[in-house]
Write a structure and sequence with these properties.
Strand content: over 45%
Shape: globular
Radius of gyration: 15 Å
Structural class: mainly beta
Number of strands: 11
Helix content: 10-25%
Largest sheet: 7 strands, antiparallel
Number of helices: 2
Order of helices and strands: EEHEEEEEEEHEE
Length: about 140
């Protein structure tokens, strides 16, 4: 959980997004918070949202699910055995939509996912399928 960005308190997702929106691509943002109960600090270099070659990321609301931007959605890079998605989603699949929102970027995915029932449209083996996943 991130508690500060550049020394400013992060009370919720809206504050997090506001602070990041004020930073420019290439700028280094200093993050502090907790991971598994241990205090951590990181310096992160921001990139433009549409910049090619974006790296993979772990979905904050769905730990253990690593995604990477793809041409038409978010490609599933890996899923750990502890992830709530392990029985429903598979590496190599592409998440096209989540709860009706096109999932082309990390911010869209993180905003669309919620506690309760989530409906994914996934490209699997060349076919679109619907996957329903409940998050506590």
């Amino acid at each position: 959980m991130i508690t500060t960005l550049n020394g400013k308190a992060v009370a919720d997702r809206g504050v997090f997004r506001l602070i990041l929106s004020l930073a420019a691509p290439g700028e280094v943002v200093h993050c502090a918070g907790f991971h598994d109960g241990v205090a951590v600090e990181h310096a992160v270099t921001l990139r433009a949202e549409n910049e090619a070659g974006g790296g993979d990321f772990e979905a904050a609301a769905l730990p253990g699910l690593r995604l990477k931007p793809a041409e038409n959605g978010l490609k599933i890079v890996s899923i750990t055995e502890k992830s709530a998605a392990v029985r429903k989603l598979k590496p190599g699949q592409i998440i096209l939509t989540l709860n009706g929102e096109k999932t082309l970027t990390e911010p869209v995915f993180e905003t669309a996912i919620r506690k309760g029932v989530n409906t994914f449209t996934v490209l699997a083996d060349g076919h679109e399928i619907t996957v329903v996943l409940r998050l506590e």
